[in-house]
Write a structure and sequence with these properties.
Layout (H helix, E strand, L loop, with lengths): L4 E6 L5 E2 L15 E5 L1 H7 L37 E3 L1 H7 L3 E6 L9 H14 L4 E5 L3 H13 L2 E7 L4 H9 L3 E5 L3 H15 L2 E2 L8 H15 L7 E5 L4 H16 L8 E7 L4 H8 L25 H11 L2 E5 L1 H15 L5 H15 L8 E6 L11
Parallel strand pairs: 5-13, 6-7, 6-9, 7-8, 10-11, 10-13, 11-12
Antiparallel strand pairs: 1-2, 1-3, 4-5
Helix pairs in contact: 3-4, 3-7, 4-5, 7-8, 11-12
């Protein structure tokens, strides 16, 4: 197998850069870099039918991922997570065609495994031996695990109130843990300082080109698992928003590959009422989200006051004809329990926020009861036992 990685392109100014040199954000304007592929050549070499005999992980899409040599892939078996019909939950909500993609069964029990597998693999291939990351929880655990798998050094900066399970999984994998008073934005400042002082490579959300490449495989899987037909709507919980951005990037690539028809889903972003910068920006018609002051929510992954990729998330929502909405902490915890009772699925708080949001989307008619709707559960509730 051969990767058709071509170059890096700035999502804001359009400047291009070599994909075989180490980059983080755009050297010209500081915005997000995307990995670009020779999709015309890839379409001649790879067809959907070719995937049927491949291993059940995200690296089945190797040609469309950024690692040059398969020997450099750092994997724990991430990806190709189940896409589950949720009939009883659908009956409860009034949605006749409801699906849940369960990212909680990934290694390290969250969708963060995808992004860190891709980012660590490519960085190690380019010579990186030591990493740092700010994390509200699951990303730190994923970096610790994949760095350990690669034999690399990892430093993780986390808010002091991060769930205990997240701290413990970072520690058990041998990473250096630093607890920071404040939010993930404060942890980000500490991570950047450590990167400069110690010569570490910072893999913060969308501040290097390859975490989003791992996340985009959710989009490829959704299409493949549904027979190359997409749902009418996808409801996604957004902190930094990389999942929405990655899925949308996957749809754009698959269209150019000739794998999709013209019907794409509406994308809906869900944030907590106590930290909703993307929702506010969407409602105001803004292209960027001003930082949220005094961010508060029990869902650690949603407590992100500012996102470097805000303009990419907002563009995906608008291009898809979707929207953005908030839910309360009380609604989140209600739906953690309701989904578990109805479907036997122990969602993380961020995942349960999608069920709370769908109830509202159905009630106000934004989503039809006949629509095929997909909820993204981004992690396992087992990491949040302290909330119960």
């Amino acid at each position: 197998m051969k990767s058709y990685l071509s170059h890096l392109e700035c999502t804001a100014c359009g400047d291009t850069f070599s994909a075989d040199e180490l980059h983080r954000t755009c050297p010209s304007c500081g915005k997000v870099l995307y990995a670009r592929y020779d999709l015309a050549a890839a379409s001649r070499a790879l067809a959907p039918a070719d995937l049927e005999s491949r291993t059940g992980d995200m690296w089945r899409y190797f040609e469309l991922l950024p690692v040059r040599d398969a020997a450099n892939v750092v994997s724990l078996g991430e990806g190709f997570t189940p896409l589950l019909p949720a009939c009883r939950l659908g009956d409860r909500l009034g949605c006749s065609n409801l699906l849940i993609k369960d990212e909680g069964v990934n290694p390290t029990s969250s969708f963060k495994a995808r992004g860190l597998s891709a980012a660590v693999s490519r960085a190690v291939e380019l010579g990186v031996t030591a990493f740092t990351i700010p994390s509200a929880g699951n990303a730190g655990g994923a970096l610790a695990a994949y760095a350990a798998r690669a034999g690399a050094e990892a430093h993780v900066f986390m808010p002091t109130d991060v769930p205990r399970a997240n701290r413990d999984e970072v520690d058990i994998s041998g990473a250096h843990v630093t607890l920071v008073d404040g939010l993930i934005s404060d942890a980000g400042k500490a991570s950047r300082a450590a990167a400069e002082k110690l010569g570490l490579f910072d893999v913060s959300t969308l501040q290097e080109p390859y975490r989003v490449e791992g996340k985009k495989t959710m989009g490829y899987e959704i299409a493949e698992q549904l027979g190359w037909k997409l749902p009418d709507a996808i409801v996604y919980p957004a902190g930094g928003g990389t999942g929405i951005v990655g899925i949308w990037k996957a749809f754009q690539e698959m269209e150019r590959l000739g794998w999709l028809d013209a019907k794409w889903p509406r994308m809906f972003c869900v944030q907590a009422e106590g930290c909703a910068p993307l929702v506010r920006a969407f409602r105001e018609g803004a292209d960027h989200a001003e930082p949220w002051v005094d961010a508060r929510t029990i869902a650690a992954g949603l407590r992100v006051p500012a996102a470097i990729g805000d303009y990419l998330v907002l563009a995906a929502l608008r291009e898809s004809g979707g929207g953005a909405m908030t839910v309360t902490d009380e609604e989140i915890m209600t739906w953690v329990r309701e989904v578990a009772i109805l479907e036997g699925l122990f969602m993380c708080p961020e995942g349960a926020a999608t069920a709370a949001a769908l109830e509202k989307l159905l009630a106000d008619g934004t989503v039809s009861s006949e629509d095929t709707v997909l909820l993204l559960n981004t992690g396992s509730g087992l990491k949040n036992l302290d909330l119960l």
